[in-house]
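agent> Task received from the user: take the single chain below, predict its 3D structure, and emit structure tokens. No templates, no multimer pairing.
agent> Plan: (1) validate residues, (2) run structure prediction, (3) serialize to tokens, (4) report one or two observations.
agent> Step 1 OK, no nonstandard residues flagged.
tool_call: predict_structure(input=
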Amino acid sequence: MINPELMKELYTDSLTRITDTAHKLGMKIVIHSCGRVYDLLEWWADCGFDGVHALEPTAGVELGRVKEMVGDRMCLLGNLDITRIMVDASKEEVFEAVRESIAAAGKGGGYIIAPTNSHADVSVERMKWMIEATEEYGRYPLKV
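)
tool_result: status=success, residues=144
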């Protein structure tokens, strides 16, 4: 909702101070942002964020593209759709979504599978399926 260049101008110094402080305290720091975030990824990595969360497929974010862009600089978290997959998808669909996410971003590590957000309609049963699928597809060496 704000031009990325204006965001960089207004917030780079503050975000860098925040990440520097976290690192001096021995902590890692993850940024969460909804939406199509391609134009912000490199900037967040430059600001010192250790990870990025949401990576919403419903916003058009392709996990493989994010992995190529910043996967060597940031841990990627998320990408499981909370509008359908984690709400009313079949077990097979949840397993397939997990398999696809791990195939797109799991190679070489640096990916944590997770829903893009949480809300009351996210199904506990589907969260369990997500964990089962992660156990099946997410062990190294990857088989996806």
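agent> Step 4: summary for the user.
The first helix runs from residue 4 to 24.
agent> Done.
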